[in-house]
Design a protein that fits this description.
Elements lengths: L1 H16 L3 E6 L5 H11 L7 E5 L2 H5 L7 H17 L3 E5 L6 H7 L9 H19 L2 E3 L1 H7 L14 H4 L9 H17 L8 E6 L1 H4 L14 H10 L2
Parallel strand pairs: 1-5, 2-3, 2-5, 3-4
């Protein structure tokens, strides 16, 4: 009995001493269609223990990538199911609200059949339903950002705007916004006890995962949310 207890203790110590790996597989402009085309190469082939999936902003607000809700639901569910087949744990993150005033400076208003934030709201509801039906985890970042009054056009906003970065963007987080995302994700993973065994973490998504406008964009360094998550994990 003592031998078995010692073996278990040694195994726990060995697991705790293993470093975390965080892989950034965000690509700007990607929709769920694009993610499906690269899921085998960028997720399955890398054998992650845990995958954080954030997708839907382009499907819902990028006028060149818009899809009906039914297509979005089918493609998102297909992504989740393919990732689950690898044995990886899956954490979904809902899309952030957007500043439609800035958006309509770049995309013609007439291309949208409804307000883009209504489409984002609908996409978030779809993600929550898929998480429940596929029995995977879901961090509702959209709700958290809305509760903080985002997006707004002050210098303190967590979304890029003219006052804080000199860019009339209204979609992507600032460096502080990415740190906030990383902290929310870290707390969620810790709360749900997903940091004990799942140490190879892959972040899969679009330009928000990539880290648009940030130092270290596309990597686990600099100001991206995968970089922020990696820093937080290093303190465990």
């Amino acid at each position: 009995m003592r031998y078995l207890l010692l073996c278990c203790l040694m195994a726990c110590v060995a697991c705790a001493s293993r470093p975390y790996t965080v892989i950034n597989k965000g690509v700007g402009g990607n929709s769920t269609s694009d993610l499906l085309r690269r899921v085998e190469q960028d997720v399955v082939a890398l054998r992650p223990d845990l995958v954080v999936l954030m997708a839907g902003t382009n499907d819902m607000v990028n006028s060149g990538k818009l899809v009906p809700y039914g297509q979005y639901t089918a493609q998102y569910r297909q992504l989740v199911q393919r990732i689950r087949q690898t044995g990886a744990k899956v954490v979904l993150m809902t899309s952030l609200p957007v500043d439609t005033g800035y958006l309509f400076q770049r995309h013609r208003r007439g291309l949208y059949d409804t307000d883009p934030n209504v489409r984002i709201d609908s996409a978030c509801a779809i993600v929550r339903e898929i998480a429940a039906s596929e029995q995977v985890y879901c961090l509702d970042l959209h709700e958290v950002f809305v509760r903080r009054g985002e997006p707004n056009r002050t210098a303190a906003s967590l979304i890029v705007n003219a006052a804080n970065m000199g860019r009339e963007d209204g979609i992507h987080p600032t460096a502080a916004g990415y740190r906030f995302m990383a902290a929310q994700l870290y707390d969620y993973l810790k709360k749900h006890r997903l940091l004990r065994r799942y140490r190879r973490i892959l972040c899969f998504g679009d330009s928000i995962t990539y880290g648009a406008f940030m130092d270290g964009a596309g990597t686990d360094t600099g100001d991206t949310y995968p970089a922020g998550l990696k820093r937080l994990l290093s303190t465990r």
